[in-house]
Amino acid sequence: MTDTKYTRQTIIDVRTWVPGKLFSVHATRDPAFAFQAGQFARVGLPAADAPDAEPTIWRAYSMVSAPHEAHLEFYSIVVPEGEFSPRMAELRAGDALYVEKKPYGFLTLERFTPGGTLWLLASGTGLSAYLSILRDPATWKAFDRIVLVHGVRTAQELAYRAEIESWRTHPDYAAYFAEDPRKLVYLPIATREALPGMPQARLTTLIADGGLETLAGETLDPERAKIMLCGNPEMLTDARKLLGERGFAPGRRGIPGNLAVENYW
Fold first, then answer.
1. Is 232:127 a contact under the CB 8 Å cutoff?
2. Quick check: 61 and 40 in contact, CB under 8 A?
C-alpha cells in the first residue's frame, strides 16, 4: 500500500433503514484507530470504474460506534446521483472500505464541564455522533440528565429508535434509570407526520416557543445546560441564533462553553 494515511477495512454488514435513502454500515476496525466519542473519520472508496484500485473518493462520517467497541459503524443518507453514498449503500459483507488513520472533529464532551443537563439536538443523520457519545459510559456519569432530540421528516426516518428506547432496560444503562427515570429523555420529532405525544414541528420552532423545554421537562438555562447541535446548515444557523440570544456560546481560549456545533451536510 503506497499511502500510509489510511487502512483497508472490511464490511461486516449493511443495514437499510429506509430503502434508497438511509442506511448504516458495520466494518472492521484497525486496532490502532483511536477516537473520542463524537469525532468523525474520513472514509474512502476507489473510483467506480476501478473498484480494485486505491481509494480516491473520500467523505466524512461520524462514528456511530463508541470508542471501546471493536467495530466501526457509520450512518448515512443516500445522496441521489452522489459519487459516494449510493455506492457505499450497495456494499456487502466482505467488501473493502478504507478509513483514514486520523480521526477529526471537536463535537466531544471535552468542550463542556461535567454536571447539569446535556442536550443533544440533531436533525437527520446528525444523530450519528450522539449515538457514539451515548454508547460511551463516561457520558452517563458526567451529566445529571441527558435530553436527546432527533428531528426528522417522517417516523420511518427515526433510525436507531428501537435501540435508544431499549436502553431503559438494557444492563449497561438500567441502573441510571433506576436512580432517575428521566436520566435520558428521548424526543423523536417529525415535521411531516404527527407522532404520538409529540408536536409536528421543526426543532427551531420548539426552541423559540418553549415547546422543547416543556417536552423535556427541563429548562434551557445557560448556567446548567450544555447543548450540542448537529445537522443541516439551515437548522444550525437558526438554532445558533436562538440559543445565542439566550446566553449559549462555544468555549474560547481554553474556557469551556455551553454550546458545541457541527455541520452535518
1. no
2. yes
Where do the structural domains in the chain lie, given as residue ranges? 6-104, 109-263
CATH number corresponding to 6-104: 2.40.30.10
Q: Cell numbers at residue 108, please?
A: 466531544
Q: What is 109-263's CATH topology?
A: Rossmann fold (3.40.50)
Rounded Cα gap, residues 41 and 105, in angstroms: 9
Q: Check for a shared fold between 6-104 and 109-263.
A: no
197 Cα distance to chain centroid: 24
Integer Rg of the chain from CA: 19
Nearest of 17, 206, 203, 39 to residue 130 by alpha carbon: 39
Residue type, 125: T
Segment 197-242, tens digit of pLDDT = 999 999 999 999 999 999 999 999 999 999 999 999 999 999 999 9
pLDDT classification of 1: cutoffs 50, 70, 90: very low
